[in-house]
Amino acid sequence: MALGVQAARRGYRVAFATAHQWVARLGTAKRAGTLDEELERLRRIPLVCVDEVGYIPFDPEAAALFFALISSRYEQASMIVNSNKTFSAWAEIFGDPVAVAAMVDRLVHHAEVIALKGDSYRLKGRRKEVATSTETS
């Protein structure tokens, strides 16, 4: 999400939330009958950052709302999506391989996909502590 922070520092409007926070926001709008208006409001934000896709599975309604977010921004505005899962594992997260294929198709069409490898920066320098605590648990 550092790219989103840099965009904000350079004066771009940026909205940050986890995938589940975005889905909750859209779910609230759907129940209020204002989903299209909420998607339009979000479309006016030049960059939407979505964190933590894949940490928690989506129920079918949440998956549909997430697809609506991606679909509404496709070729209209930018997104940064952060996931600890490969696209091939998204079917498990969203439960619908066809919807996932359509979602990924829209995300990668004009995208730069960056795959990071390596240790978590949060654990840097704490590797011994973590290994010791898991051994004693």
Verbal overview:
52% of the residues lie in helices and 13% in strands. It is of the alpha/beta class and 137 residues long. Strands 1-2-3 form a three-stranded parallel sheet. α4 packs parallel to α6 (97-108).
Sequence-ordered SSE layout with sheet pairings:
Blueprint: H1 2-9, E1 14-18, H2 19-31, H3 35-43, E2 47-53, H4 60-73, E3 78-83, H5 90-94, H6 97-108, H7 127-136
Parallel strand pairs: 1-2, 2-3
Helix pairs in contact: 2-3, 2-4, 3-4, 4-6
Residue runs with pLDDT of under 50 for 5 or more positions: none
Major sheet: size, sense and barrel closure? 3 strands, parallel
The rounded Rg comes to 17 Å
Mean residue pLDDT: 89
Query: Count of DSSP E strands?
Result: 3
Distance between the termini: 33 Å
Question: Structural class of the secondary elements?
Answer: alpha/beta
Side by side, the strands of the main sheet go: 1-2-3
Strand-residue fraction?
A: 5-15%
Annotation field: number of helices: 7
Helix content: 40-55%
Outline, from the CA principal axes?
Answer: globular
Order of helices and strands: HEHHEHEHHH
